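#dry-run=false #mode=assembly
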Amino acid sequence: MAIDVKELKTIEHDVLVVGAGGAGLRAAIECSAQGLNTGVVTKSLLGKAHTVMAEGGMAAALGNVDRRDNWKIHFRDTMRGGKFLNNWRMAELHAKQAPDRVNELERWGAVFDRTPDGLINQRNFGGHRYPRLAHVGDRTGLELIRTLQDHGIHQGFSVYAEFCALDLLLDDGRVAGLVGYFRETGEFVVFKTKAVIFATGGGGKCWRVTSNSWEYTGDGFGLALRAGAELQDMEFTQFHPTGMVWPLSVRGILVTEGVRGEGGILLNNKGERFMFNYIPERFKSETADTEEEANRWLAGDKNARRPPELLTRDVVARAILAEVKAGRGSPKGGAFLDIASRRSAEDIKRKLPSMYHQFKVLAELDITQEPMQVGPTLHYFMGGIRVDADSQMSSLPGLFACGECSAGLHGANRLGGNSLSDLIVFGRLAGLGAAEYIKGLEKTPAPSDEQIEAIVKEATAPLHRETGPNPFQVHDELQEIMGEHVGIVREGPSLEEGIQKLEGLREKVAAVKAHPSAQFNAGWNEALDLRNLLLTGLAVAKAAKMREESRGAHTRLDFEGEREEWGKANVVVRLGEDGGVEVRRVERPDPPEELSKIAYATLEELEGGNG
Amino acid sequence: MAERTFEIWRGDRSGGEFKEYTEEVDEGMVVLDMLHRIQARQANDLSIRWNCKAGKCGSCSMEINGMPRLACMTRMNQLPAEGKIKVQPMKTFPLIKDLVTDVSWNYRQNERIRPFKPPAPDSDGKYRFQQADADRVQEFRKCIECFLCQNTCHVLRDHRKQEHFVGPRFMIRVASLEMHPLDTDDRIPDLKNEFGSGWCNITRCCTEVCPESINITDNGIIPMKERVVDRYYDPVARILRAITGGGKKLPTA
Ligand SMILES: Cc1cc2nc3c(=O)[nH]c(=O)nc-3n(C[C@H](O)[C@H](O)[C@H](O)COP(=O)(O)OP(=O)(O)OC[C@H]3O[C@@H](n4cnc5c(N)ncnc54)[C@H](O)[C@@H]3O)c2cc1C
Ligand code: SF4
Ligand code: SF4
Ligand code: FES
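#status=ok
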């Protein structure tokens, strides 16, 4: 089929934001505020992006509940949670700016839960020293996205919903726009822009057991790689310790950490509170070692240390896995999560209403009466597009990234609640970065017709094939490989086998066939997503193989423990000349002295200063 | 477990028909799981909207055995054990394809509502208000924009008064702003003149289908109608209310 590029619909903007989750909307609001003609595209409808699912809260050292909190302690917690592999500058910016961004949401209409003094309430979460998560029951993400949406629709940017970006356009090594299609009609559109901001989220759909939705096919990673940008830290994929394990059809759906934040405890099939046996050396001095002390903490004793259920996610996820492996798991292959015996039914319904509802409807279980069964589920990508800490620009001029699709802030492991605050802090900075970049542009980049034609041709190929594999089955195979070889614990030879199997999928992905109608055609959409899923899977597997140590969310059975030399390096991913996924080790610069001091200081040295 | 047969609407604006699909049901499955199974095995091009699979995003609204519901929160064992299961798109909105409808009208209604307008914060840059005041609006802010209430309201579904009435979802959106402890704007004239609050005759059908159990009519719409009445129809309404005892039997305003 010949394609006449002149016939394709073309839309011009100064900047196009890809993604309408928290990061994308915050970026778009900033772009508009900077006077840029701004467009936003999203694969689903406005207000439905992944951010809507976030439950527990957003972290910001407001100091409303515990005055001892301040940005330095938030920074220190973030670095320790990330096992010191975080980008120091990003962790600093995040901790310093999150309180302003949360207050700004309130100015835009958000209604957070209140303290008795009438301030924004904050709850405890894993790895956060003080109650730090601003929240609305267990639907904080909904509050965030709706606030940005309702504010955003009056800021003058255009939204193109149910639109899927396929590939970036370049001019002389700079971003010049992108091509994509409307899911409703299959119509292709060329966006001509001076800059593009990715806020595309993660790639959880590489795994079968995940808390992520169909949107998370790693599009941002795939598009960035194909356009020549670099990714970083892709080996750090977070398995959340508490996903539902039963019924099978909802396996992986998230049970918020808020359950543990509100006092929930983990038990094995012997009724033992096993987390006491898994406290890592680094956290021993700050974690309760008896049930008595943990209970005092829950009752509000400020001198008691935190219960071990609130250790970082990597620690808790591995502990559950170890209990199950040792034969002490729950009947459906997880651990018991008990809130029923810890809190009154009334409290549970008020603090965790959507968890109550979710279990009642999906598992026919009343969490105010019985314990839940939970197990690890793939939840979050710490890694992603490699960006400059201040401007959020990637290694490709004109391409910016923020939110889950970018790398740096979280290092080897993300603390709960640090994502929602990440979105609003770095969404805004990406908007500012793009505005700055556009100001400095000498001429408007212009993409060639050949690029546009090539993208459309490749995208329509599955519609014209007589025969070919079913895209849903190929996706299934990919998930099988990732689950078996690139899971929560990893080993060199198995990773290598996984990589070979993934490479073997390449041809299948290139040959899939879709039903020949471009209109809202799930099979065709899936066929196109597969390219990004495969690149994402390969990036994770290869980076995981290269990092020969265990750190944070990345566990190698054949290389136990953190290795000093790997604490000084990141794994960076890019595409080679032949289109293959290449990984390399990049040394990290020394941390700024001032920040390093804070990160290694004792709590007493840092506390206070907040009002 | 047993096999079940689905009758699913297949078609687009130019027409269509119900088609039958039979698949195995496993324990614990919801209707959305079954639709996905059918999509993966028999009908790759079946169009469905969904995201979260946990009742949080409001994407998977459709009519299941005639009831407006979220497909991801409808368990197979909640449905009658015998017979075919009929699945069709929401009726009130223009069809796009199969189970997907064009809900853009709803988004346009939201744009018509005056945005939140707060006063200046306290000297420390913070706002203060009590949880009790938050509670009232938080109920409305639970809305996941599934538009099932919009689909159900007879003013929109049967009488097709889309030109005149914004529908229950946006009545409570206005209520969430009007009752917001910090808001300083006034949307009562808009409610009466632009948003058609008088069209609602308090049948409560919207409240019945809301998957978030928001008390749309009693907690949101009626107080808004009362404010309109107080503003425009005083003092007659006041006397009427004294006689009928509360707001529930108000003549539609
Ligand atoms: C169940 C759950 C609970 C969570 N709870 C918390 C919590 O309590 N606290 C916390 O801090 N974090 C939490 N997280 C993590 C957090 O919600 C996410 O990391 C965050 O919302 C990601 O936001 P984002 O803006 O980066 O991307 P998203 O909100 O995922 O948005 C991505 C956007 O990109 C669009 N997109 C992707 N690819 C394309 C393409 N090719 N073309 C066009 N558009 C595209 C999508 O359509 C979407 O609009 C939770 C996550 C889950 C899944
Ligand atoms: S109560 Fe009013 S808004 Fe709700 S369905 Fe009835 S008429 Fe419609
Ligand atoms: S009010 Fe209820 S039914 Fe209506 S859109 Fe919101 S969640 Fe859906
Ligand atoms: S898929 Fe989100 S509500 Fe059903």
